Amino acid sequence: MIALGSDHGGYDLKEVVRKYFDKKGIAYKDFGTFSSESVDYPDFALMVAEAVISGECDRGILICGTGIGISIAANKVPGIRAANCSDVFSAKYAKEHNNANILCMGGRVIGPGLALMIVDEWLNAEFQGGRHQKRLDKIKDIEKKYGR
Ligand code: RB5
Q1: Residues paired with 3 in a beta bridge
Q2: What is the tally of structural domains in the chain?
Q3: How many Å lie between the centroid of ligand 1 and the Cα of residue 13?
Q4: Residue 65 sits in which domain range?
Q5: pTM
Q6: Cα separation, 126 vs 131, whole angstroms
Q7: Is 64 in the pocket of ligand 1 (CB under 6 A)?
């Protein structure tokens, strides 16, 4: 199950992703927003991040205008590794090396065709573990150092 969320800046692209999942039969839960009316991206980042951390959803996709604000907000939740990707190469390695559990994109940065390629790449990639796990453990240590 994939958690989907966006603010108004990412709403149109979220709709593209949502319809793509419908077509492909990929299960998702849409946390909104549900229109182009102005909202605050941290609210949607938090809902999707908590759905992933709680195990309600396996992973998440978050979209705002640039992908920046919504990724910053999601990464405040301990255990979240949200990667803002605008290219297919980064999407692949966000999973293979960083085990990113949330993919972020900028609805005002990339077009729908590239976005769906990025989504596919990230969904199909597999975390490689090994030396990369050691680095993720160090990220966890940083969270612990700051009481998160
Ligand atoms: C909203 O106007 C915009 O600031 C937001 O979508 C995002 O780009 C923030 O990082």
Answers
A1: 29, 60
A2: 1
A3: 13
A4: 2-145
A5: 0.97
A6: 14
A7: yes
Calculate the average pLDDT of the chain.
Answer: 98
Res. 49 pLDDT band, cuts 50 70 90: very high
Examine the pLDDT at 148 and tell me if it is beyond 90: no
Distance of CA 133 to the CA centre of its chain: 19
Look at ligand 1, atom 8, and give the residue with the nearest C-alpha. Answer: 65
Active site residue 97: yes
Per-residue pLDDT tens digits for 61-107: 999 999 999 999 999 999 999 999 999 999 999 999 999 999 999 99
What CATH number is given to the structural domain containing 106? 3.40.1400.10
66 CA: nearest ligand 1 atom: 8
**pLDDT above 90 (res 14):** yes
Residue 5 Cβ < 6 Å to ligand 1: no
